[in-house]
Write a structure and sequence with these properties.
Blueprint lengths: L8 H19 L6 H8 L3 H7 L3 H12 L3 H8 L5 H10 L11 H11 L1 H27 L9 H17 L9 H15 L22
Helix pairs in contact: 1-2, 1-4, 1-7, 4-8, 5-6, 6-10, 7-8, 8-9
Length: 214
């Protein structure tokens, strides 16, 4: 069983990434065999290795393709929306239950602790996420949404810790009231605003554009 007739290399790769994301999320990295992913995708092991050099590479590629992407999607849909508001929208959803792919990051992080082959590409993945987020934070600082004295790298790291930690502390382990969580986030976002201003992202439904007066 090689590449499926009539299916392009790009489509084969996407089949593999979907099958890998589902398998890793359900069975974990150690519990997933490369052969199982190939069967689920409808290709041979050889076809899989033609696209991905190792199981570790496939894990991180599946995470890039099907892992958490809410902030990126929100930004792409409305790049003029204040960054502080985007972060607040994402933050309000952190305590809620995720779909299976939402826990893919947990499996990748656990595997990275045990396996250097996974840790190497994961460092690249986390670094890219942090750099992208830090870039958004710098843009928000330039537009007066966030305190310019804050370290963009430190704040990006803080946001990643919240996001990744929320995948570990699930609602069935410790639920939190949505209203109380939103109120806490509003206080945090306000504290990140420049002195003498109130971050507009603290109120749900804000429609002010970046660069507007605070």
């Amino acid at each position: 069983m090689g590449r499926i007739a009539g299916v392009t290399a790009t489509e084969t790769r996407e089949r593999l990434l979907r099958a890998a994301a589902e398998s890793f999320a359900q069975r974990g990295y150690d519990g997933t065999r490369v052969a199982d992913i190939a069967v689920a995708a409808g290709v041979s092991n050889g076809a899989l290795y033609a696209h991905f050099g190792s199981k570790a590479e496939l894990l991180v590629a599946a995470l890039r393709a099907h892992g958490p992407q809410l902030l990126a999607k929100l930004f792409a849909a409305d790049p003029d929306r204040p960054i502080t508001e985007l972060l607040a929208v994402v933050g309000r959803g952190l305590p809620r239950r995720r779909d299976a792919h939402g826990y893919l990051i947990v499996e990748a992080l656990v595997a990275a602790r045990r396996d250097e082959d996974v840790a190497r590409p994961m460092r690249g993945y986390v670094g890219e996420r942090t750099d992208w987020l830090a870039g958004l934070i710098r843009a928000a600082q330039n537009d007066g949404e966030l305190d310019g004295e804050l370290s963009p790298d430190a704040l990006a790291h803080f946001c990643l810790l919240l996001a990744m930690g929320s995948a570990l502390v699930t609602p069935d382990l410790h639920p939190v009231d949505d209203g109380e969580w939103a109120a806490l986030l509003a206080r945090v976002v306000s504290a990140l605003a420049p002195a003498g201003t109130a971050a507009q992202a603290s109120a749900p439904g804000t429609t002010a554009h970046r660069g507007a007066s605070q």
